[in-house]
Amino acid sequence: KQIGSSLEAKVVLTADKDTTLFLSEYFSQLRYIFIVSQVEVHEGEAFGVQISEADGAKCERCWNYSFGVGEFEKYPTVCERCVDALSEIEKAAIA
């Protein structure tokens, strides 16, 4: 009951060398596949999965947790991904 929704979670995978190499090809997509805010992949002896609370702060727009929330003066309540999206929306509205 520490984690209320999947976006509040971080998944830490431990896998053998071959599996770690395989997962590294898809690393940027793993958080979307697992529907969580963060994923870490570590090489180890045996396969393991740990679930914990995500690090950082919750983005007001997408609800993902990120260390980027609060770093942007124009949009202090959103993550780096949402800042890019909002900037593109602004450009489109001006054009």
Morphology: elongated
Give the strand content: 15-25%
Give the % helix: 25-40%
Distance between the termini: 47 Å
Radius of gyration: 16 Å
Order of helices and strands: EHHEEEEH
What count of helical segments does DSSP give? Answer: 3
Strand arrangement within the widest β-sheet reads 2-1-3
Uncertain spans, ≥5 residues at pLDDT below 50? none
- Supply the helix-strand structural class: alpha+beta
Beta strand count: 5
| Largest sheet descriptor | 3 strands, mixed
The overall average pLDDT, rounded, is 94
Helices, strands, pairings?
Elements: E1 9-15, H1 17-25, H2 27-34, E2 38-43, E3 48-53, E4 57-58, E5 65-66, H3 80-94
Parallel strand pairs: 1-2
Antiparallel strand pairs: 1-3, 4-5
Walk me through what this model shows.
With 95 residues, the chain is α+β, with helices and mostly antiparallel strands. The chain is 34% helix and 24% strand. A 3-stranded mixed beta sheet has the order 2-1-3. The longest helix has 15 residues.
Keywords:
95 residues; alpha+beta; three-stranded mixed beta sheet; two-stranded antiparallel sheet; 3 helices; 24% strand; elongated
Short description:
The chain is an alpha+beta fold and 95 residues long.
